[in-house]
């Protein structure tokens, strides 16, 4: 579990790549500069950890591409102490970026192995999400709602209604929508009944799966 000067150098290069690709949020770029992505991957992928690519993390899942993590994080407009719900903890890398931005992060994962693996990784890296849940992200976390923002990190066939209900007025829901290819979608809750929708082009995610329990 080592983070060396060499890794820091590679992270600085990765941040330049993200800037070139259009990421402008200084806080997001700083978080990516800090979080040791190589420690969220199987060690056989370590040499590739700072390429702007997705990689397998076991259980048929992937760690999102850094550009995607940065893009979604930027859309969330995270402020310190924001309460954020993440669907799809996976490797925990996106969770770690949000924690580094000062958010109180609640995250749900439906694959038991990943849930266990990632839950035990955070304390080793001194990363402290508020609450990690093993369960179905389609349902959100009603007992902890409402949230300042919600991020879905798997491709969703539709917007789960419970997630819309668990968003504060003024809150932001960032969700990749679609089956084979997803359109990055931002919903802003304007008032109790209305949501404003913005779309941001194509991304590719593993699917948001229905409950298997
Ligand atoms: N944020 C992760 C992305 C992992 S890929 C990272 O940075 O590594 C998407 C994750 O969503 C996978 O781990 C997958 O198991 C999980 N997932 C898929 N459907 C889900 C559901 N219904 N509820 C919770 N998690 C789900």
TrEMBL record:
Query: What InterPro entries does UniProt report for this protein, alphabetically?
Result: PCMT, SAM-dependent_MTases_sf
Gene Ontology annotations for the cellular component aspect, listed alphabetically:
cytoplasm
Could you state one GO biological process linked to this protein?
methylation
Where is the protein situated, by its record's location annotation? Cytoplasm
**Gene3D superfamilies recorded for this chain?**
Vaccinia Virus protein VP39
Q: What is its main location?
A: cytoplasm
Annotated SUPFAM superfamilies: S-adenosyl-L-methionine-dependent methyltransferases
Record-given protein name: Protein-L-isoaspartate O-methyltransferase
Q: Which organism is it from?
A: Flavobacterium micromati
